[in-house]
């Protein structure tokens, strides 16, 4: 652990696990920006939301990869990983926490189920700026353009922090390329509903989402993805003090990222 570096400390995490392709691409893109540390779940924890482990002890283990020794895994939730990083790995709080890149979108009501968003939300509770990154696809989709956008957003956050108590929730459509549209959006939940359904090839009930994309407003995250734009939403974890959120211009903030 480098205590003398003048570079900002960055923390990467996710909910797809320490070996996930999206996380590896994110790490590659973030390393030039600062001193990068990774603490991620030992196994996939999709749908863990902002839950934490309270009924058992957790195992924190070294998980080096690609020559980096500054990686650890935790047999817990994404929020557990952030807490473990802050209390047991890092001597100083990171400048930014970047969660992702999730293998699948986190839009609309899904932000309330997402472990990716849950990890970013936990960072916000500690007063640390955070970004939740998701690609609306799974491997073998190309995660590199989304990783480059994550790096640009991280650089922007290092210059201008979003309001206290908020996170940036970012979704990128499959096929988006660097230089493509990056749109300021709002999270809309009214166009979707969650249900369980029986499948012909599996036992039991399985969670599914029904989405009415036709009624999604023009400034919604859903509409942005449908129109092949990367979506960036400012999500409130808790109410910022002193009207800070109303003074933050997301559109202006993104002008330095595009």
Tell me about this structure.
The chain is α/β, with parallel strands linked by helices and 258 residues long. The chain has one domain: Stationary-phase Survival Protein Sure Homolog, Chain: A, CATH 3.40.1210.10. It contains seven helices and eleven strands. The strands form two sheets. The chain has a nine-stranded mixed sheet with strand order 3-4-2-1-5-6-7-11-8, sandwiched between helices. It has a two-stranded antiparallel sheet with strand order 9-10. The protein starts with 8 loop residues before the first strand and ends with a helix. The mean pLDDT is 92.
Spell out the CATH superfamily. Survival protein SurE-like phosphatase/nucleotidase
CATH topology annotation: Stationary-phase Survival Protein Sure Homolog, Chain: A
Q: Tell me which CATH architecture applies here.
A: 3-Layer(aba) Sandwich
Shape: globular
What is the helix fraction of residues, given as a range?
25-40%
Gyration radius (Cα, Å) is 17 Å
Number of domains: 1
How far is the N terminus from the C terminus? 33 Å
> What is the tally of helical segments?
7
**CATH class, anyone?**
Alpha Beta
Largest sheet: 9 strands, mixed
Mean pLDDT reading = 92
**Order of strands across the main sheet:** 3-4-2-1-5-6-7-11-8
Order of helices and strands: EHEEEHEHEHEEEEHEHH
Entry summary:
The protein is an alpha/beta fold and about 260 residues long.
């Amino acid at each position: 652990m480098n205590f003398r570096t003048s570079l900002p400390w960055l923390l990467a995490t996710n909910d797809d696990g320490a070996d996930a392709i999206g996380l590896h691409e994110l790490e590659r893109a973030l390393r030039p920006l600062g001193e990068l540390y990774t603490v991620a779940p030992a196994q996939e924890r999709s749908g863990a939301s902002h839950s934490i482990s309270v009924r058992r002890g957790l195992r924190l283990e070294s998980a080096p990869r690609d020559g980096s020794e500054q990686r650890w895994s935790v047999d817990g939730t994404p929020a557990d990983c952030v807490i473990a990083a802050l209390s047991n790995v890092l001597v100083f709080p990171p400048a930014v926490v970047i969660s992702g890149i999730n293998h699948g979108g986190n839009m609309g009501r899904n932000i309330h189920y997402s472990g990716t968003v849950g990890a970013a939300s936990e960072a916000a509770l500690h007063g640390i700026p955070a970004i939740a990154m998701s690609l609306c696809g799974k491997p073998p989709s190309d995660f590199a353009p989304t990783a480059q956008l994550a790096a640009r957003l991280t650089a922007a956050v290092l210059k201008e922090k979003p309001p206290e108590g908020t996170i940036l929730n970012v979704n990128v459509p499959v096929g988006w390329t660097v230089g493509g549209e990056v749109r300021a959006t709002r999270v809309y939940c009214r166009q979707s509903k969650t249900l369980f359904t029986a499948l012909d090839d599996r036992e039991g009930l399985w969670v599914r989402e029904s989405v009415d994309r036709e009624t999604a407003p023009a400034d919604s995250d859903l509409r942005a993805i449908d129109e092949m734009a990367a979506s960036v939403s400012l999500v409130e974890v808790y109410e910022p003090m002193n009207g800070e959120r109303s003074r933050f211009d997301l559109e202006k903030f993104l002008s330095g990222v595009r």
